[in-house]
Amino acid sequence: MNKYEYVKKQLAKTNKKNDENYIVTRIWHLINDYDIKINTQQFVIRSDNNQRIKYGLIDLYFPQFKLAIEIDEAHHKSVVNQSLDQIRKNDIVNALDCEFIRIDATQPIEEIHNEIDQVVQKINQLKDEIDFVPWDIDKEYNPSTYIEQGYIDADDNISLKTVADCCNVFGAGYNNGYQQSGAPHKFEEDTDIKRLLFFPNKEWNNKLLNNEDVFTEYSTDQLKNEDYFNKRMFKYNQKIALFAYSKTSTGNFEAVFKGLYALNREESRSKGVLTYNRISKIMPTYYPTGDIQPVRIAEAYNEAEYKVAHFYTEEQITKFKVKYSDKYKVVITATK
């Protein structure tokens, strides 16, 4: 899929809602920048309520800027809906760690255009202020992009196409004929790499909960579930580098990176359902063993001393520090 096809698909998803279609397409055409990626009807897993999962769709989302745009049509004006909208907004902001802007579609066209202009101005301003990475539709699906970067971050909303791609981000070196749902991590021996289904199906009822900080793994086949439960509890690796196989803004099912999770044995035993807690949204990536590798000059660690990134150039270190500020500790391991 090229950029033209992708953008057409995004805009087409707004066709049945006149206000949304008008405002979204006007924003896109006024931006007039093919280095900026847009997602319409961005799917979001919101906070759960007593294990009941809630989902949300954002009218327009700019992943490079973590900027969500919501178009408020007439039905949003009721007191009840305004209250629900505020709850929904809070859930989305918490889930995506994003900025949220509303455009009131019930205003006169001059006011609507004024709010659209403010959004466009903000996007252009953000592009100048941040370490902007142009949208490259080919590179974003290529595991080498993240291997060379030295890390992969769930907050970057990264999707890959195959299980082999998911494993290759961590140095597996598989070809695309690889048919399993995952594989043991070749460099972090306590970790498995898994692409799991998170939509209704005949075999599994997996769930992402608590703004994706928790996930559960459960087979609808009782005997299979019991067997897998025992193997995961007592035999298999206790950590999972998770990719959720779900429908993305492209309209296709893709493997979306969610982070590193650790099995909560006590919770799993108590509920009888395998339950995992996210311990990091960011993980280091690896070159395959047989590849010629650049010299690793630094590493980054989180507060729990888990290594989250590798660096091969001074420029990478600088970009990482700008992006994450003091969130992670960078340790120099060699000089070039």
UniProtKB/TrEMBL annotation:
It comes from the Bacteria. Residues 4-124 form the Restriction endonuclease PvuRts1 I-like N-terminal domain. Residues 145-284 form the PvuRts1 I-like SET and RING associated domain. Coiled coil: none annotated. Signal peptide: none annotated. It comes from Priestia aryabhattai. Pfam families: PvuRts1I-like_N, SRA. This is Phosphoribosylaminoimidazole carboxylase.
